[in-house]
Amino acid sequence: MALNRAAVRRDLPYLRRRVKPVSVDVAAAVVAAAPSAPSTPSASGGLSLRPAIAAAPATAPAAAPATPPATSGGLSLRPAAASTPTAKPAAASGSRPTSAAAPSGARPADPTRPARPTLPQPFPAPAIDEVRELGPEHPVLRLDARRSAIGSLIVSGVHAIAWESTNLVTGALTLTSGGVDTAGTPVMTPGNRALVGFDDGDAIVALRHLRTLRRALFIGNGPEPIGVQLFDGSHVTVAVTVASDPGAGAASGDRMFVLTLLRIGALIELRAEPVARALSPAELHREFGFQLTARFDARQPRTR
Predict the structure, then answer these.
(1) According to the UniProt record, where is the region Disordered (predicted)?
(2) Neighbour-count burial of 44, counting CB atoms closer than 10 A to its CB (0-12 exposed, 13-18 middle, 19+ buried)
(3) What pTM, to 2 d.p., does this model score?
């Protein structure tokens, strides 16, 4: 095998990787190279990924700015170091004042800009721990944010329910001897679960998707009281009949209470509303403004 006696290519860094590095005193090298003439880089046609380093001129003072390095004949992917620009006179005609300079993306503060209006807070209402029964004395209660968003709200003792979503999609379910009578359009959650529906005779509201629900109506089943239960065991009942006189304590059989659920922001508000007992579920839907949305079943496209 012939011995390669060619000199090491200095303009190709990757060919010098096996050369053992030698520590050189930079200060001594500069002093030694000062009397000699500046070396001219060899004009090579090879590829250079680093700019050629030019020797410092002998007549340049020590505090003078560095001159730009000489460019080699090869291709360099690094831009040459630009020399320090000369300072412009402070009284130049086209210059702007320093105080007026501001970043292009910055937005100047407007002291006259009005503050963002805040939504009105709901009126004070008792919590579920403070009320045992919704009726003439305590017709309303409000759940906190934790109880309004975790688990399911279970309503027992009802035979008819109605709901309305934030998209104004309305539907209703009624328990009958033959099963469940469906009217309007059901609202399904992303998990393919009904937002409001029946399960083993109890009405279930999926609180995880409370943002989709606007309001709901629960109609009792005759003499059985309506009960509400939460995930942590908190519960409340709704009075069966409406007293003709709160002070007398007598009950009137021609009126009863229904339960309404309203979503106020991220909170649930439960109300006991007195209605006539003789009204049917469809009449109660109209009484509370539930206009059932016509159900539309999308037809599957033909495959042939």
Answers:
(1) 60-126
(2) middle
(3) 0.58
